[in-house]
Amino acid sequence: MAENDFSLKETCPKIGGGRSIPGGEMLTSTFDLVERMTFLYIRIVKARALPFNDLFVEVTIGSYKGRTKRNTNPNPNPEFHEVFAFNSDRLQGNVLEVAMKVNEEEVIGKCRFEVAEIPTRVPPDSPLAPQWYRLEDRNGNRFGGEVMLSVWMGTQADEVFPEAWHSDSATVTGENVVITRSKVYLSPRLWYLRVNVIDAQDLVPLQANRTNLEFLVKGFTRTMSPVWIEDMILKDKVGQKEESLGRCEIKLSQVERRVLPGPVPALWYNLERVGDSGFAGRIHLRVSLDGGYHVLDESIQYSSDYKASAKLLWTPAIGVLELGVNSASGLMPMKSRDGRGTTDAYCVAKYGQKWLGRTEPPLGRDVVEYMLDFGSNIWSLRRGRANFERIVTFFTMFIDSWIWFDSVCKWKSPLSKADSALPDELDEEFDGFPSAKSPDLVKKSCLWSNLLSLHETSDDFTCVLRHETP
């Protein structure tokens, strides 16, 4: 397997830079930071004057197909309200075909659109209004049936992009096609039910001759019915025994919702007897649904967001940080599909201490000083490795010297001076031993002259050491 190249590379994505308007200003959007992708959008609204009711619409361009849900209503004018998006880089044809079908084989009518003639629309341009188009049968004749639709070329900044069915889901069939839509995940707002019991009046005890009564209020919710109902029960406590005096039911759909910490008006609610629905008194309550609080879904020590749920309670922003994710490459395959490795990756951007704490912080000054303290006697693997490298560097000089000396001895690096040798030196080198020349000639040879010269030089040096004149 070839190694991945993680070196720094220059990229030139085609990102938007805003659009100019007649006034000279630039209109920007969130998608200006990401690479622009072009899609062929088609919105199927409804149809009319069809011979059958149990129909569906199939959109085809090349080998990519999109299909609406089958109309099961007896209405002769079915409504679909579905959007399809085809990536323009993967279009395999020049004609977009919209067909009204009863089943896979039987086609009621169809209409065609040339891709080159489809208009382009990029926000903030106004959306294209759907129009009625006549359907043609297999022979190319119009029979009266019509379909209302709109088709345009757009980008991922289009408003219909999140709800569109994309061409990447062409191989998905059955009920799984629903999960192939692009999704936008929003954090749900949780509402707290706050009940403040103030006082009660005109309570009717179960036994008229009882005195020193002790009252308490209990509340609970019932989720078995379609509409949540809050039950407030006022009980009479005698010792460890509790008896219900009355009950009131409050529909949560009628409870005031608030996000600001302002006061909530208190209201009186009638209490009914349990069993006979008779009057049992009144209770004074302050009930509200508070949605301005923040619900922590993380550990408090590592939470990255402490803002309230309501935007009205947020502190004013001093700036906006925009991040655009362009692309990713060199990802390791995590699973196998059709005999080849694939990776279903996604990118998550978080800002806060929870994710900044995962990076390695710089070393503090005290840590650096301790690491550089050579007088410390505590064993350290780092220092052991450093000392080992020093020893290896010291002995490397001897090893290099030995290798050089061995190469000289084995004549691997000769220094012969053969190119500058004199004739007398060559004659003396090739003379045998004992010399075949006369003694007088030997004394006059170059070697003998050099030895005499060396002897004289040594005598002169001895005189200098003795402070004598040579």
TrEMBL record:
Localization in the cell: Membrane
Keyword field: Membrane, Repeat, Transmembrane, Transmembrane helix
Membrane topology summary: Multi-pass membrane protein
Presence of keyword tRNA processing: no
SUPFAM superfamilies: C2 domain (Calcium/lipid-binding domain, CaLB)
Chief place where the protein resides: membrane
Pfam families linked to this entry: C2, PRT_C
Name of the protein: C2 domain-containing protein
Organism whose genome encodes this protein: Arabidopsis lyrata subsp. lyrata
UniProt lineage: Eukaryota, Viridiplantae, Streptophyta, Embryophyta, Tracheophyta
